[in-house]
């Protein structure tokens, strides 16, 4: 019987579980277990002694389960026959994909549709004994390219059932389904965790990377075009609304800034808003040509009485001064009688009166047709 002194995994590969090719050993054999590995002795369908990373010399003390099952005698050297499996404890990932289409009726557009899905899982072997007992009878060597064979039925059944149910429950349109992938990943992972745990495997991640849509289906393409046109129109309308609101807010802020600047200017120059309004009214009155007529002075003064006190007083005083300088009578040079300005003869003594302009009261000669001061035509 051949005796092998060193038991170890010679090279790195993708094997999750690798069986040492020889089965005959003795109690002085050397066992070398690398980092992120475990070595499990297996005999008669039973998982026996388990070793973590390190270097071991096999003896009846460190293989008690194997010694008991095989009835290895204690002593200097004992021979025995068993299988040794090396288990890779690092995190692994493998791909998955639906082998048939998921068929359902789109809840929004009410047309039949078929989709597929694919992605990957990330996992780590947590219980080496449980995995060996479940799987070694099926395959002697297990790598991450065929691990999906053991879990394909679990993955595909749960993925197809969950996605179709969620689409109906949440009324998910086919064109919106990618927005729900993160939720799908979390929920399907929860569903699958127990199935993987039954095999001693901890499922770290479940990922749907792609939902395969029927891009070759003409009906699907027509609905897809309509959906994106509708989406763009809604987005443009919302954008216009936001821009309009921003414009109105900008205009309102500009008015506030201008008002504050005007208020600061008035404060610096020593007048109020009411004074400013009075100035504006006076400018409008000054533009009215009828205000220049002495017959309308009363109207002008009446209007001015309604404006600000300071400005009204100033204009009233100025008008009063002008009126004081205007002689509304034609005085007779002979007897001193006060005659109306339009009189040609004195009403008291009958003397001929000097001619005066009815507009500016300027004294004119008898032959003047127009006032030489204001240009008014005599007799108008």
Explain the overall architecture.
With 380 residues, the protein is α+β, with helices and mostly antiparallel strands. The protein has helices at residues 64-70, 128-135, 147-169, 181-197, 218-269, 273-287, 297-304, 309-325; strands spanning 6-7, 15-19, 24-26, 30-33, 37-43, 46-51, 54-57, 79-81, 83-88, 92-97, 102-105, 112-125, 142-143, 201-212, 329-331, 338-340, 355-356, 363-364. It folds into four domains: 6-88, no CATH class; 92-214, Band 7 domain (Tetrahydropterin Synthase, Chain A, 2-Layer Sandwich); 273-325, no CATH class; 327-380, no CATH class. A five-stranded antiparallel β-sheet has the order 6-5-9-2-13, with helices on both faces. Strands 10, 11, 12 and 14 form a four-stranded antiparallel β-sheet that branches. Strands 1-4-7 form a three-stranded mixed β-sheet, with no helix packed on it. Strand 11 (102-105) and strand 12 (112-125) form a beta hairpin. 18% of the residues are buried.
Short description:
This protein has 380 residues and is α+β, with helices and mostly antiparallel strands. It has helices at 64-70, 128-135, 147-169, 181-197, 218-269, 273-287, 297-304, 309-325, and strands at residues 6-7, 15-19, 24-26, 30-33, 37-43, 46-51, 54-57, 79-81, 83-88, 92-97, 102-105, 112-125, 142-143, 201-212, 329-331, 338-340, 355-356, 363-364.
